[in-house]
Amino acid sequence: MPTNVAAARLVLEGVKAACSNCNLRELCLPIGIEPADLRKLDELVSTRRRMKRGDYLYRAGQGFESIYAIRSGFFKTDVLIEDGRDQVTGFQMTGELLGLDGISSEVHTCNAIALEDSEVCAIPFSQLEGLSRQIHTLQHHFHKVMSREIVRDHGVMMLLGTMRAEERLAAFLLNLSQRFKARGYSPAEFNLRMSRDEIGSYLGLKLETVSRAFSRFQEEGLLSVHQRKVRILNTAGLRRLMTHQRSD
Amino acid sequence: MPTNVAAARLVLEGVKAACSNCNLRELCLPIGIEPADLRKLDELVSTRRRMKRGDYLYRAGQGFESIYAIRSGFFKTDVLIEDGRDQVTGFQMTGELLGLDGISSEVHTCNAIALEDSEVCAIPFSQLEGLSRQIHTLQHHFHKVMSREIVRDHGVMMLLGTMRAEERLAAFLLNLSQRFKARGYSPAEFNLRMSRDEIGSYLGLKLETVSRAFSRFQEEGLLSVHQRKVRILNTAGLRRLMTHQRSD
DNA sequence: CCCCACGTTTGATCCACGTCAACCCTGTTC
DNA sequence: GAACAGGGTTGACGTGGATCAAACGTGGGG
Fold this sequence. Notes:
Chain A is of the alpha+beta class. The first copy, chain A, has helices at 5-12, 35-44, 125-134, 136-162, 165-182, 196-203, 207-219, 235-242; strands spanning 47-51, 56-58, 66-72, 74-80, 86-93, 97-98, 111-114, 118-124, 189-191, 223-226, 229-232.
């Protein structure tokens, strides 16, 4: 585990939040921002919040004030309706933003829950709007992030609307893999932070179906699974499976 | 292939658009903008584009430059992947914005197709960013619109992930009804602009299933359907059906 | 007016996934 | 180290919606 360079760097960081010396700035909001402007951003992103596994970052119905950048850790967001149904709408990892759903009505519309001990930077939204009126690149980057979220959601709609169980799981794993890779972790071997049930909720499947799909992938030599430890053995095979031709 | 697109561009005639005297400004971007600022917006939203049923407003892969406000008409957006599968990601009507997905990568990620003769206002995006740096309320309103799109997508994910066929159709019809109502049309009686197949694609169902659900609703006296003409007879009943308790 | 094309409806059958239930792991508590 | 809890796996069976197929409008064109 100390093989993990990114994690090791995190531990060396001071407590004071500062985008200017955050090693995530290539992934997070400050992308492409001038050093001078970065200092202004530092003032804005002044509070960090440490959270334990299971803690709620915010809840549906709560007033919206800030968006959050994940400095370390892993989250899920979910929506639930009166009759008890719920749906995991996303899993978020280091460098990603949480809370964008709250802008529309000044109220959070989903729950955000830490799936492991985590740390986030709170970014007061009205101040972010203020600063992005001054800093062109910040404004544009923020718009890109929101748009990317919309595109991502369309991908999930595609998945839920047209794919079968194994295709969904393959797509999910490849997506995770690619995001770990982008953060300097192994794309082939990683620990799932979520339960079979949570994966199922995200993919529109029951946990038994998720479990069976995992077993099947293992039988076919596409990956090995032990509990939440996954090692991808055949990326191409997974990709092929995901894009498998249907009998149209 | 660009026959449609080229044709549509030709129609990009110099019809003078003007938000300030557009009767949609309560629904569209200019919400809550001062008269003085509204004039600046007028300059920005200078080109209208007239489209016929079936025309593409933009295609996946095309470069992104503008977002579009629907002045009149009805659109669908869809994504498709290599293996032939496609998914309708949304239906858009008067006053709604199209093209937000393109911001993230400067390229449109879906197709936008007119489902009836329509007219849109093109809004060059870089200019919109410029103006929203000057006009707070425009900036904030734009952020709200993007956020609302994200919330809407979460609703669709919920629908696709947890609801059964009849619940999905009920949710879909109630949503349409409510949007027609917001535009001053009858919430109880309207014409569907899309085929059973397109509804099915949006709801993650086959057209036969959509058709059967319509028939069932009619048998139960919830609505009457003739072709694409729908009249809702029992809104409460539909709502009850949508939120029906599952055997948990 | 008839014909053709295309979207829609309806019926019969099939199958992927849900449901229910038993059992198994692994980690934790006393 | 026995007992327990919570997640995960596996099997047997049921079912909602897909698939296949046929017939039915409706509207446009000759």
